[in-house]
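pinned: reference chain
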Amino acid sequence: MPIPAIWLGAAGLLPFIATTLLSWLLPPETRGFALFALAAYGMVILSFLGAVHWGLALGAPASEARYAAPRLGLGVLPALVAWAALLLPPVPGLALLATAILATAAVESLAARHGLMPLGYLRLRWVLSLGAALCLLAGAAAAFNSV
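pinned: its structure tokens
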């Protein structure tokens, strides 16, 4: 993996960490903004993860043409799930985002078995996905505690 991808990927966890901390540290009456910011960022990241597959599908060699439809589907589905999650109350919405981020990584692991995902990307992806999912679940716990 290119060093900038590692650094930028790690930096991408900072908004997750900051909004999760705020969701626990702010008084319950102002916690809603931090929870919304966490969900909105989770939505952006989940949509970004889908876009990776759109790019892979469009740039794939002809020998991978049979994977075009599933790749394009995986390019669109995360954005739709992210949008639905943002419309939900904080606890189920944040839990859905965490689950979807991990599920996307699991599907990518299956794709890697067919040589469709770079292994360096996949390793980085799991580290970042676990960090993001933990933050989203911690935010859901903060939302649950403020009810």
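why pinned: The radius of gyration is 16 Å. Residues 13 and 131 are 7 Å apart (CA to CA).
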